[in-house]
Amino acid sequence: MRQKKENLWTKNFTLVTLATILGAAGGIAGNFALSFLVYDETGSTLAAAILIAIEIFPNFLIPLIISPVMDRLPRKPFLVGGDLVNGIMYGAAGLYLMFRPFSYVGYLFFSLLLSCLSAFDMLAYDSIFPRLIPAGFEEKGYSVSTMIYPVLQVIMMPIAALLLDAVGVAVILLGQAVFSLLAALVESRIRIKEESRMEGEKFSFRLWKKDVGDAVHFLQKEKGLQSIYLYMAVTNAVGNAFSPILVAFFRTAAGFTTAMYSLFSAAEFAGRSIGGVLHYHIPVPPKKRFSFAFFVYQLYELMDVILLWVPYPLMLLNRALCGFLGINSAVLRMAAVQSYLPEEYRARLNAFNTVLSSAVSCVMTLVIGALGEVMDYRLVLTVGGLFTSAVLWATIGRKRKAVAAIYNRETENAA
Fold first, then answer.
1. Cα–Cα distance measured from residue 137 to residue 7, given in angstroms and rounded to the nearest whole number
2. Which domains does the chain have, with CATH numbers?
3. Radius of gyration (C-alpha) of the chain in whole angstroms
């Protein structure tokens, strides 16, 4: 009898991908509508900045609080419950705005609740997703997952803009509620064997403290993981902090316009799309993963260093190349790290990474913003890129043997 050939698109992986598409499509449209609603109602960029700060804050607390519980209990209920509550909240917000006027103070509390739920939902997704990818197909699985949001962003942003004028914010939020509830319904059909690891104990502060301590002790011995977490936290934080600097440059530099800046996103999307499709069909061989990723990291920082010093066509090529290489290195990192993490520690270690990334992001946003007040915008990107490159060599480069052991680790491929 001929043996059935395994592939990536099992029932579980198809379901989680469909649920992710539903949730992301609704989320992009809803966030777009809400961002315009806040500015239209307040006319204040400070009001929007306060909301951004509120959205970051839960990432310092929620992952650490909930991750020990998530590592002890089955994770599927957390995933389904997150989208279910999300749908209920957006549905309630949509109904409220249909009959009541917008309240900024009320929206601050609503945004805080949503941010807490988002941190919870992201942790649940990151913790269960590796279990839904067939062994040996990790790179392909993460190639698919990393492509979903950028593709949907290009599709949903213009649709959301049209809907905003045609039907208003309230109806868009009701639509997002439906998408979230559908995502929860799809996720409920995932079949995965999970067991409680409570070991006869009731959850308590003592048990929570012990679980956090165990994860910390594990991470202390993992120099490779430490290096990956620290470098990625810094490079992502600096990259995000560059956004307002780039906006300021294109608004003030002679010969540049905001329309030219908007093409950056298109160039990067094109690069990411090509890179994602290529990586899906041609995965990097296990023995070459670290050397490829390390090369990409060095080149990526160099691209930031020179970005604003080259002619505009080369700027677009720069962003397209970063998009192409960035998605490939991101797929390698996520597949390698998530498959390396022990199942019983995954939620807690992902939580530590989230907290670290949020903390570094807050610091670097302030530092880069302050440099923009006293330095030429081109120099800010150069200094930021050189700093991140130094961090790269002090972490990944210095601990390359330990990091390579994670990246080049082979997983069993189903025949």
1. 8
2. 11-193 (1.20.1250.20), 214-407 (1.20.1250.20)
3. 22
What is the pLDDT tens value at each position of the chain, 415 positions in all? 444 556 889 999 999 999 999 998 888 888 777 777 776 777 665 565 566 667 777 877 888 888 888 888 888 999 999 999 999 999 998 999 888 887 877 878 888 888 888 888 888 888 899 889 988 888 888 888 888 888 888 788 788 878 888 888 889 999 999 999 999 999 999 998 887 776 667 777 888 888 889 999 999 999 999 999 999 999 998 988 887 788 788 878 888 876 787 778 778 888 888 888 888 888 888 889 999 999 999 999 999 999 999 999 999 999 999 989 888 889 899 989 998 998 888 989 999 998 898 889 888 888 888 888 888 889 999 999 999 999 999 999 999 999 999 999 875 543 3
The Cα 28–Cα 24 span in angstroms is: 6
Quote the pTM value.
0.81
Name residues whose C-beta falls within 8 Å of residue 245's C-beta, 6 or more positions apart in sequence.
Answer: 368, 369, 372, 377, 380, 381
The amino acid that residue 11 corresponds to is: K
Q: What CA–CA distance (Å, rounded) separates 289 from 184?
A: 35
- Please name the residues in contact with 172: beta carbons below 8 A apart, sequence gap of 6 or more: 29, 30, 33, 94, 160, 163, 164
Q: Measure Cα distances from 367 to 221, 310, 363 in Å.
A: 31, 25, 6
Phi, psi of 253 (to 5 degrees): -75, 140
Question: Does residue 6 sit in helix, strand or coil?
Answer: coil
Amino acid in the structure at residue 104:
Y
Which long-range contacts link 98-103 to residues 24+ away (Cβ below 8 Å)? 98/170, 102/37, 102/41
Structure tokens at 103: 């309240």
The helix (run of H) or strand (run of E) holding residue 240 is: helix 223-252
Question: Three-state DSSP class for 102?
Answer: coil
